[in-house]
Amino acid sequence: MTRMASFEAGEGKRSMAIGSYFRGDYIAKEIIKSILYGTVAYGIVVGLYLAHDLEEFMAGLYEMDWIAFGKMILYRYLAVIGAYSVVTYIVYVVRYRRARRNLRIYYNNLRRLGSMYRKESGEDGKQ
Amino acid sequence: MAQLLMIREKIKSFYSRFEGFCKPALKFLLALVTLMIVNKGIPFASVLTSLPVMLVLALICSFFPMNFILVIGVLVVLLHLYALSLETVLITGVFFLLMFLLYFRFAPKDTILLLLTPICFTLKIPYVVPICAGLVGSPVSVISTGCGVVSWHLLHYIAENKSSLMTQESDPIFQLDKLRVLIDALLNNREMQVLVAAFAVTILCVYIIRRLPVDHCWTIAMITGMLIDIVVILVGDLRFETRISIPGLIIGSLVALAVAVVLQFFVFNVDYTRTERVQFEDDEYYYYVKAVPKNSVSLADRKVKKIKGREKPGTPASAEGGTEKERRDSPEYRVRRSKATIEQESRKTPPLREETLQDISGSVARNKNRTKRIILPEDTDQNT
After folding, report:
1. B92: pLDDT strictly greater than 70
2. Each residue of A10-57: pLDDT tens digit?
3. Is B86 on the interface with A (CB under 8 A)?
4. Which of B79, B140, B191, B315 qualifies as a cystine partner to B242, CB 3.0-4.6 A?
């Protein structure tokens, strides 16, 4: 009972929030969030690189092949976001599975406690 | 060993008894150490380096969640760097933004690792971090440890090159140069990259091995982790010609192993000789369980009983500060009462009975002197 109360107060809150989603919905939601965060992070890194090579960039501004440059930026973005999404998928599949397992143990304990209460109340009724 | 286990149990019971005080105290200590290290490394804003300010900030941190220490640490760093130059604040701020995007996404509860990594670098024992993170953390600890390594290297670089970064130039070319130098320090620091890679590989290996269902997995994990860490750093050093000290690496790894052994004693102290394999089921699953008992000793439950001195005759109990109940519970009172009871019982006991044998033996004793037999009260039942 103490363990259950501790679970409800701590880890249980997060597990219950995760458990309220279907697996696919939960993972898709987290991947979309990761894509947003990854896009911001990638933008920052590209900005840093541009700041680093600003002189060369400005000097070759008019001679640059913009389509090739855009393709390079896009391909790298897709590679980064792809890798980030794969990592997110793995991490959140593990988290979802762990949350479901914790919830299953919690509900088993809850059922056992309920049957103990029923048993006690039945005995009291007989007396 | 039993003594060590006893000490461990005492520490655990002390912590669980005073958890409400221990947690804030530990947070206070961690925040104070972090702020001291930051102030020692980049002491550019003199207001923040004073001890009262540090104490107040650490005290505030002790009442908030662990991540608040991180936020305060980042703010203090940025304020120090603002006193140095605006470009430094910009690059460092961008790095911290990147770090928070990655870190809070996957490992928001690994603050302790993120804070301990720069602290261990300052104490010259950085190799402790990956082994301990692999033992008690999870694979996502790679992110927090990596962020810690990059933070320390960036701040270390700024501290070493403060004179060149401090110059206030209005020329945009000089400002761009400063930015470039800082970005180089962040993105092209080979030593930092080798350490990040080595720590990541070590954490993953240690984590995988310590989760294996084999005996002594923690010991195997920590030794393997130490060797992998050394090998990856050596290979990186050869490949990228970093300036990592090899004796420092060896000694640091041995220190890391010692710290890991201590950690194992506190976290995963089990007795493999008493391993049991059990099998059971519930409504949905069959369970094949290998149960390894933990090494533990129970603390002796000592009760101290206070014994009061003898009362002076005529002195009332209340005058000594004791109640009537305490007086009655005292051993002197009990002894006196026992003596009195014995005397009283002996008074109640019937006197020795004289019983003539005349009634028993009839005519045999009739003409002779009366023979007296002394019958003790206990014997009465037997003889009658």
Report:
1. yes
2. 777 788 888 888 888 999 999 999 999 999 989 988 888 888 777 788
3. no
4. B191
B1 pLDDT more than 80: no
DSSP β-ladder status, B372-375 and B353-356 = antiparallel
Global pTM reads 0.72
What ipTM goes with this model?
Answer: 0.72
- B348-372 pLDDT, tens digit each: 555 444 444 444 444 444 444 444 4
Which of B86, B92, B106, B204 is the best residue to mutate to test the A interface, defined by the most A CB atoms within 10 Å of its own CB?
B106
Give the count of domains, chain A: 1
Contacts of A104 in chain B (CB under 8 A): 284
Per CB-CB distance under 8 Å, the chain A contacts of B107 are none
Q: State both tokens at B148.
A: 């810690």
Q: Nearest CA to B349 among B378, B374, B373, B372?
A: B378
Q: Do B101 and A55 touch (CB under 8 A)?
A: no
**How far apart are the C-alpha atoms of B299 and A69, rounded to whole Å?**
70
Q: Where are the domains of chain B?
A: 2-269, 321-383
Region of residue B321 (left: phi > 0; alpha: psi -120 to 50; beta: else): left
